[in-house]
Structure prediction request, 188 residues.
Amino acid sequence: MKPLVWLLLCALSLPSPPALAQAAQRVNRCTTAQGDTVFTDRRCDALGATSRLPSRTASVGNTGIYRAGCARRLSELTGQIRDAISAQDVNRLSSIYLWSNVSNATANHIIGRLESVVQRPLVDIAPVYPDAAPVPLDPGLVAVGTTEAPARPRPVGLRLEQTLGSAATPARTVFGLRRQYGCFWITL
Prediction:
């Protein structure tokens, strides 16, 4: 009876076949001393290289359905747009859209447009500034000898430069920017 219990305990201490398969499938991205990128199933240290992380990782709370917060800076909003397009996830892109006062018919149309945006490869995201000409200052209001730099205009939108499919045909989408609830939102 003792050998049977010992054999059972030994069998339970071995890793399961899915755990072994998962360990064998792990690929590490490493950078050598010469700056070359190497993909390996071994640790980077074993190759004399350093671990290299992908350029952008999802932050905690902003993956899946639940989002811990909203984009309070324009750089966060552009990062969320970039992530949604790279994942081709229309739900992620629609989560940063300002849906207030949108009817069902209009919402269906907007979702269709957002779906076409996430299906195209992204080339660039650039801010769009207002075209308004600067208002001339009244010379009587400005003290003599002072020069005030004009205030830097705030962007009113984001322009997405994309290509149609695998071709080089350019496609452009302009999202309007709205600030509401202390957060940045996109509109069409």
